[in-house]
Amino acid sequence: MRVLVVGGSGLLGRAVCRRGVDAGLSVVGTFHSGEISVPGVAARRLDVTDRAAVRALVAEVRPDAVVATPYRYDDWAVTADGAAHVAVAAAEAGARLVHVSSDALHAGRPTPYADDDPPTPVHAYGAAKAAAETAVRAIDPGAALVRTSLILGEGSKQIQLCRDALAGRAALFTDEFRCPVDVTDLADAVLELAASSYPGLLNVAGPDAVSRADLGLLVAERFGLDAAGLKTTTGAALGLARPLDVRLDSTRAAGLLRTRLRGVRELLAP
């Protein structure tokens, strides 16, 4: 199987590229400003906001499956329009599409979110991810749309944020709850879906819901850091428009996939 990983220079994209090569797949990965640096991956520069360029590359590569991971937190054109461009190109090529979405499109609530719960964005990034999903589902109803949470692993900005908070350079929220997932587990799940015919939305996140502050404590324990200096705050105190309690129920994925989605407490066990 030939897989095109759009956004192959990102944390998840690199992991998908690496795991794909390990599985014996033919992998082409795209990058814009970063590097992929994964042996065995054919790297191609691509600007996902250029619809013609996306269509030309997909037509040239002729992939069996396309994994779409590109996003830029503060850029609607990359996150929303780029997703639509990739979906159009994949559909034209008859390729299987796995689009990676986010729990950030939910507003937050006391009960976990099911796979099919509609988006309720409260900030611009969440709205962009919601718009991306809407476009992908309209263009390719058979595509798999993966909603995930905080991604952990080597090079994870989430781990670095925790280190910064432990050193007093940043603050972690005590009232924001997420379901962190290991980048390798997520990559394996995405590749499983690329080889399947599963259509529609699927929560793919870890089984443990923790606050960002608790994640900081787990990072301290895992790496032997002093937790006494951990700096915390609350979203409510800062008056920020951001989702707080966003727990994803990944029961469906756990029953569907061979990949075991490990919880954060297992991942960061000392």
Structure description:
The protein is an alpha/beta fold and 270 residues long. The chain contains 10 helices and 13 strands. The protein is globular and about 55 Å long. The termini are far apart.
What is the structure about, briefly put?
The protein is α/β, with parallel strands linked by helices.
Instruction: Quickly give the structural class.
Output: alpha/beta
Distinct helical segment count: 10
Quote the beta fraction.
15-25%
Shape: globular
Q: How many beta strands in the DSSP annotation?
A: 13
Low-confidence stretches: none
Distance between the termini: 38 Å
The major β-sheet equals: 7 strands, parallel
Radius of gyration: 18 Å
Strand arrangement, major sheet: 3-2-1-4-5-6-11
DSSP helix fraction: 25-40%
Supply the key terms:
alpha/beta, seven-stranded parallel beta sheet, 10 helices, two-stranded parallel sheet, globular, 270 residues
Q: What does the secondary structure layout of this molecule look like, with pairings?
A:
Blueprint (H helix, E strand, L loop, with lengths): L1 E5 L4 H12 L3 E6 L9 E5 L5 H11 L3 E4 L7 H18 L2 E7 L21 H16 L4 E5 L2 E2 L4 H10 L5 E2 L3 E2 L2 E2 H12 L5 E4 L6 E2 H12 L8 E2 L1 H4 L12 H6 L7 H4 L3
Parallel strand pairs: 1-2, 1-4, 2-3, 4-5, 5-6, 6-11, 7-10, 8-13
Antiparallel strand pairs: 9-12
